[in-house]
Amino acid sequence: MTFPARYTGNELNAAVVDHDSARASILLAFPDVYEVGMSYIGFKILYSIVNSREGFIAERAFAPWPDMEEAMRTHGIPLYGLESLSEARRFDLIGFTLQYELSYSNVVNMLDLAGVPRLAAERRDGDPVIVAGGPCVANPEPVADFFDLFALGDGEELIVDIMETTARAKEDGVDRDQLVRRLAAIPGMYCPALGNAAVRRVVTDLDAAEYPEKFIVPFLDTVHDRVVLEVMRGCCRGCRFCQAGMIYRPVRERSLPVLCEQAERLVASTGYEEMGLLSLSTADYTGIQELARKLVQEYGPQGVAVSLPSLRVDSFSIALAREVEGARARRTGLTFAPEAGTQRMRDIINKGVTEEDLMSAAADAFRSGWEQIKLYFMIGLPYETDEDVIGIAELARKVLDLGRRIAGERGKAGRVRVNATVSSFVPKPHTPFQWHAQDSIEEILRKQQLLKEPTRVRGLSVSFHDVMQSHLEAAFARGDRSLGAVISKAVDLGCRFDGWVEHFRPDLWKQAFESQGLSPESFANRAYSFDEALPWDKVNMGVSKAFLRREAELAAQGITTEDCREGRCTGCGACFGDVRVRLQGEFGLAASPSDGEGAGTGAGTGGAV
Amino acid sequence: MARVRAQARAQGVQSEMRYRLRLAKLESAVFVSHLGTMRAFERAVRRARLPVAYTEGYHPHPKYSFATALGVGMTSEAEYVDIELIDRADSPVGSRAVLEAVGRELPPGLSVLAVAQVMEGSRTGLASGIRWASYRVEISLGMALAAAELLGQASFEIEIAGKGGKKTVDVRPMVRCAAPQGRALEFTIACGGRAHLRPGDFLSALGSIAGEKVRTDGFGVHRTGLFFEVESRLVAPEAHECTDLVIAAGL
To answer: What number does CATH give the domain A4-199?
Structure first.
């Protein structure tokens, strides 16, 4: 058995639960291995909120690795919660985190292992209610068959409503059907069987939102094994391919004093040796320098290192990284995401990065002693030409040449490495590119081929994402309810852990699609027209369809849109009522009058202070 | 920071003091790897807010030294680790405070059994000094007889699977003693860099004599001691060049 500690729980700060006295219980299920699931902050937040309340309990379950699954099936061990080793069926609710589409087969497999009927329609009294949350609920349809309900948006308040409603329903002695109906009536809940329209929940003030006072400290080395401070939620940069940049709007920053308090508590309760600042674009946090300095001063001497993921492509970010991470970062290398190879293409996707930005940031990095730079690009973007694709190779070579020149002054030109990672664009729901088709597999492969020759240079390497995985991801991202039968069939055929290249079985998926008379192409490679109903229309993630369409039209013309923090309100629709851009520094001011009359009016007035 | 520390040392205000901890790994932590145990311990020490001495440089590491790794599946009452604390010469932290602070912070499955101060000038490194390890495991009568038979021989060769494939090794010199205690066998075998015998390999040697199939994956094996060898005597690490030995209550 590989890593048995995945399955034994009993870690520091794990909750002690008592099912007998609980009013309501939830099994938080993550459809990937322990090391991956334990790294998601949303999972930690929900766990902590539920367990900190009297009468509610939450346990954890992760997808068993195939060796464990085999052992479980052989010995008849059902899926269980790590806290009390209670079987999954004992819980009132099972809540899955849907972080990426390629975990759908694991969801179904975990339901099987739990002994819960796969199809929501077949569940009866005594079966737990199966709920999903996380970014993939932006299009719940492909997995709608398997879930009783979907929870949209920020979970801090929603999870409490779900637990309380469940507890009351049990106390009232209502049947399962009634419980599902009551849960569906909570704002932010979408029930596929009822087909109700739902609007995502938004936490207005991140300072007031609950954040764990302690993290479980795993015995295993997990993907992100550190104190995590969520400095802000949302990003208004408006990259048109980016789903996170759309569905987590508007930007809400946590204030400095609150973050410092959280850092203090978490270091004390975990003893972690590393602290990460998390957000979609951490260098955009107002006062990032002050925060980073404070943390480094306070915790450096205690042996706690501070790390900064998701840096912007600019000199400010390099200076920040140099200050905060020092020699440690120089060893690991630096990552930039210009996303596209030509200015024309970057304007189309609204990635506000110019070649000069990249070159000056790279020059700063090489001058500061970095020798390895990783560049992230996408191919298959809307309106892409071969010139744009080849532009990726040219840009990467320019960075390499620059590095050689600068490092050459120290006599170390030979040590410069530039690594280009090229993924295939996946059109996602609730983005301006949701209507676009993904390039066909053949076209993506052709474009990859275009890049191979011009990147055959010493010091430059290029790696591609698996085309079939991206293809399937697009089908699930944009598909409809007919995919449920395909996923079910694929699980029967043995599909598991599709996000893991060593387990991904495109041949079995092909067979699963064929068995239902469907093809992934008909979802991934089809364009939707603006007037067509989209499978995910029932789900309102905040930004309005009108805004997305406007952005799609601007993309076609190569016109960029400014970040609403710097310029004017873009009218994306994410702000309404008390929901608005909140930047660190403006706290304590009276909340702006709620001049919105609901989604779509765009009251994003929180300019830079 | 380094300069401040050097100054303090020169003035005799602060000095780096080595403490030796003896830990137990219980049944509930048998699946935790050696690396996981080390990490859990380091984090407990940080939570305990002890004045740990760090290595210098951009990414300071606490100064720790762990003794021999314990295989996954085994329990133990003899896991050793040395840590260096920056101690005030006039009011040292002391073994009792270390025992209490670390004891409070260790995760479930790990506990502190004893703490001692390593005397200044001690030249025996913890990891490098270990020569022998003792274990206890429940066995059958046949296995007990096999142990006696093995001890009676001048040499006993078995095949051992190592990194570079299978090797034939004479295990007899690596077995110091093996004595039945009720239904259990207590045995002391070589441990450390110079000569090392895994308890699983020892048990399979006995199994080959007894003609029994035995479990060799570590489950059921309990480590009872690790020892230095001083003038051919076995000495527990906390008893060698140490002072201020404090043993956890309830033992």
So the answer is: 3.40.50.280
